[in-house]
Amino acid sequence: MLEPLRQGLPPLDPAAASDAASCALPARYEAVREARQFTRRTLDQWGLGDRFDDVCLVVSELVTNALRHGLSANGVCVNGREPPVRLHLMRWSERLVCAVRDPSHDSPVTRETDDFSAESGRGLFLVDSFSDSWGWHPLAGALDGKVVWALFRLARTGSRPNGE
């Protein structure tokens, strides 16, 4: 069974991010490795290397989905000047957002996860399992396509145990 994903913006203002980084990714599957390397460097620079495993898994799934579904949907042409997929990482004091832009207008769709022997179809299930929230929104203005994002809560620095 396929379920359409609810639209929504991440609950943070991108202009208020304390750190932001992005990279353009080529329309080939090697881009997933490039996205992981970019994520590793960025998280290390921000002192968030301890979050790499979960964030990297989610980035890998979002980029793979953008390459697999975002480029093939509606006959999207990928021979323009700018690479069609872009990874954005944004950090606020207590949140990290990973966002992947692709040129497709099709909404992401989750699949039923009963068949764990299937070789594909679990990407959004993994994104949901490893991030604190996620969603997507269409792009407006000069940009075409959509952004799929995942949000991670970060521990407060200097906070006491149990969040007190």
UniProtKB/TrEMBL annotation:
Coiled-coil annotated spans: none
SUPFAM superfamilies noted in UniProt: ATPase domain of HSP90 chaperone/DNA topoisomerase II/histidine kinase
InterPro entries from the UniProt entry: Anti-sigma-factor_SerPK, HATPase_C_sf, HATPase_dom
Pfam family, one: HATPase_c_2
Statement: the UniProt record of this protein carries the keyword Transit peptide: no
Keywords from the named record: Kinase, Serine/threonine-protein kinase, Transferase
Domain named Histidine kinase/HSP90-like ATPase: residues: 25-136
KW Metal-binding (keyword) present: no
Molecular function, one GO term: protein serine/threonine kinase activity
Official protein name in the record: Regulator
